[in-house]
Design brief:
binds zinc ion; alpha+beta; 3 strands
């Protein structure tokens, strides 16, 4: 089982899509991606909570 999240699921046109073995790792990668590709989005518990609602297990 893996954890996956895609920017398009958040309503973005960004092609970013990330798959990791653990949710913790996924959030770390999402944070890095947010800083580089979505600097307008603040990294916060609220944003993390939203991202986690978009995470799929694959
Ligand atoms: Zn993105």
């Amino acid at each position: 089982m893996a954890f996956k999240v895609s920017c398009v699921d958040a309503g973005s046109e960004c092609p970013g899509s990330f798959t990791t073995e653990t949710e913790r790792e996924l959030m770390e990668i999402v944070h890095l991606h947010q800083q580089i590709a979505h600097p307008e989005i603040n990294i916060s518990d609220e944003t993390d909570g939203f991202v986690k609602t978009l995470v799929k297990t694959v």
